[in-house]
Amino acid sequence: MSAVYLDHAATTPVRPEVVEAMEPFATANFGNPSSLHRWGQAAAAALEDARAEIATALGAKASEVHFVRGGTESDNLAILGSCRALARPGVVPTVALSAIEHSAVLEAGRHLEKGGEARLVVLPVSLEGQILSGPLESALSASPSLVSVMWVNNETGMVLPVSEVTTAAAAHGATVHSDASQAIGKVPVHLGKVPVHLLTATGHKISGPKGMGILFVRRGTKIRPLIHGGGQERGMRPGTQDVAGAVGLATAIRLAVSEQEEEAARLGGLRDVFEHGLLRELPDVRINASPAPRAPHVSSIGVPGLSDGDALLMALDLGGVAVSGGSACMSGAGHGSHVIAALYGDDDPMANVRFSFGHTTRESDIDLAIAVTAGVVRRLRGEGMYRA
Fold first, then answer.
1. Dihedral of the CA atoms 174, 180, 185, 188 (nearest 10)?
2. Chain-wide mean pLDDT for the chain?
3. What is the pLDDT of residue 132?
4. Is the pTM of this model over 0.90?
5. DSSP E strands, the chain
């Protein structure tokens, strides 16, 4: 049976160029970059080269790039560390998060609220991809404040107006964080053009290593570390750095950014072929967030007549198509997608599935996905049992 992997928003296969770049630092060049001998200094040089490579690709300064252990840690460091740095005696900061943020951001905000460290504001997002100005301005008027709006939503591909949010926040002196894990390599991300204070990126979404990410911290931004015990990463993230991972991440980011324009056009074409083909077979399917600007690699669909998303996912997998219901981090959580609920309401009756495309996706994969999905949906609805 033919099988196709269309879950690149969950994780991606590591590119051969990344493996080749990492290999020497997993074997011969194994030194601890904090050591003073030649092995350590060789590792330290490679680490700083990787930092500079990432900074160049993203339009940042090397001193603003901090290596962490993936996107979830980066998000937590940004939200918890920034909020705690904003706190003053007798003053509780406001943390404003879009309603469709990754769970790593939302749960960090809820943790701060539960502990009395912050006033949490959840910002509604329209189907057109806009952050409603009234709630945003209200949140920003409470100073000091931190705003987190992801660059690209991981479940729907919706592109959020980070530049507009940053402009609004600047008028109030607020700090802005954006999770760009799904954006790099898919849409332009340049920190010289969009002056967010904090930015999250992770390797495994762009054919880099798992467990490796960065937090960009713009010069002058106040933030407190979450981990203590060493001076690595300028005290922002103590612990012996993963040099091989940093080199692999730098290679992945460089390739993703350099290929972004061409690859985005290719992936957008594949997504359009998929959606048009699926709608021909199943005209009542909803393309989630379709009124909004979307990144090219994600197509999230809602299927009328089906309410059990897990049953649909398992049937697709048995048919040879690997996809997700939404965020892989929330798989098995026992409740529906908070993103779909925020956009379509808590009582949305449809089963929702995310197809996501990547470097290895080809048009033949799309053809198979259309055929299998149409067949599975018809079978699960039941002959003669469903009426549009």
1. -20
2. 94
3. 85
4. yes
5. 4-5, 65-68, 94-98, 119-123, 145-148, 175-179, 198-202, 213-217, 286-287, 298-303, 321-322, 351-356
List all residues 6 or more positions away from 40 whose beta carbon is below 8 Å from its beta carbon: 31, 32, 33, 34
Residue 327 pLDDT > 60, yes or no? no
Q: Are 96 and 108 in contact (CB under 8 A)?
A: no
Strand partners, 249: none
Contact between 341 and 156 (Cβ < 8 Å): no
Residues 6+ apart with CB under 8 A from 234: 63, 66
Residues paired with residue 95 on neighbouring β-strands, in sequence order: 120, 146
Distance CA 371, CA 363 (A): 13
Task: Retrieve residue 224's tokens.
Answer: 């407190």
Highest CATH level, class, for 4-12+260-381: alpha beta
Angstrom distance (rounded) from CA 198 to CA 179: 8
Alpha carbon of 196 to those of 78, 193, 256: distances in Å? 12, 9, 20
Beta-sheet strand order (sheet of 213-217): 65-68, 213-217, 198-202, 175-179, 145-148, 94-98, 119-123
Average pLDDT over residues 29-33: 93
Contact 285, 301 (CB under 8 A): yes
Q: Compute how many other C-beta atoms are within 10 angstroms of the C-beta atom of residue 283.
A: 8
Return the CATH fold of 16-258. Aspartate Aminotransferase; domain 2 (3.40.640)
What is residue 336's predicted lDDT score, i.e. its pLDDT?
Answer: 82
What dihedral do alpha carbons 57, 58, 63, 65 form, nearest 10°?
-100
Residue with tokens 């910002």: 123
- pLDDT bin (cut points 50, 70, 90) of residue 332 is very low
Cβ contacts of residue 189 below 8 Å, gap of 6+? 58, 151, 180, 183, 199, 257
Distance (Å, whole) CA 361 – CA 16: 16
How do the domains of the chain map onto residue ranges?
A: 4-12+260-381, 16-258
Q: State the angle between helix axes of 38-58 and 243-258 in degrees (0 to 180), rounded to the nearest 10.
A: 20
From the candidates 329, 341, 371, 374, give the one annotated as an active-site residue.
329
Whether the pLDDT of residue 13 is over 80: the answer is: yes
Give the separation between CA 132 and CA 142, rounded to whole angstroms. 17
* Catalytic residue list contains 83: no
